Amino acid sequence: MDSLETLLQRGAEWDLAGLVREANARLPRYLPQEFGSQRVREAVTARLVRHYTGLGMLDEPLRVGREARYSARHLLQLLVVRRLMAEGHGASALGDLARRKSDAELLAMLEGGVALTAKETPSALSYLTELRQQYRMPTAPIPSAAPLPVEAAPPAELRWRRFEIVPGLELHVREDFRLPKTPSELDALLRHLRERLETQKPRRR
What we know:
Number of strands: 5
Order of helices and strands: HEHHHEEHHHHHEEH
Radius of gyration: 24 Å
Structural class: mainly alpha
Largest sheet: 3 strands, antiparallel
Distance between the termini: 62 Å
Number of domains: 2
CATH class of the largest domain: Mainly Alpha
Strand content: 5-15%
Helix content: 40-55%
CATH topology of the largest domain: Multidrug-efflux Transporter Regulator, Chain: A, Domain 2
């Protein structure tokens, strides 16, 4: 079996089925032995590759006519993602990490391992924390002495946009709201929304 470096040098390519076979043949070498969920240890499938690509975790496939082609870089990204998930990192935390790394960095992560820092894989709640801090209303300080009456400037009016998601559920978005920019930020926001909705479930009597 050729090394990953050799595959990169000769510009190896596969169709989706070929990429899946290549990944499954090499994956046991890179998965940690002492921990990792059994689900992560399961074989890579074509559906899983499409899922990771849809989440922005892998580069989009190359196109040759109507056929999708996958390069050695796709293989590196897939192996890195599976290894990090086996080490306990969730998809929302990884985000587009593998896409931001060079081929050399991906190789180093596979061969030598890597300790992910908070800067590389921000917490799934970091985006929500930032939103809370950005839009938190400041508390007025208690004056030490009664000041002279001053005419207060009228507060700036912020407009809200209203969207009906489904009958019975509306979404209100303020005009200064910062939309999520990465898959991990979007995942965190959707998970927070799901948690809030679950609190509205009717209690059983």
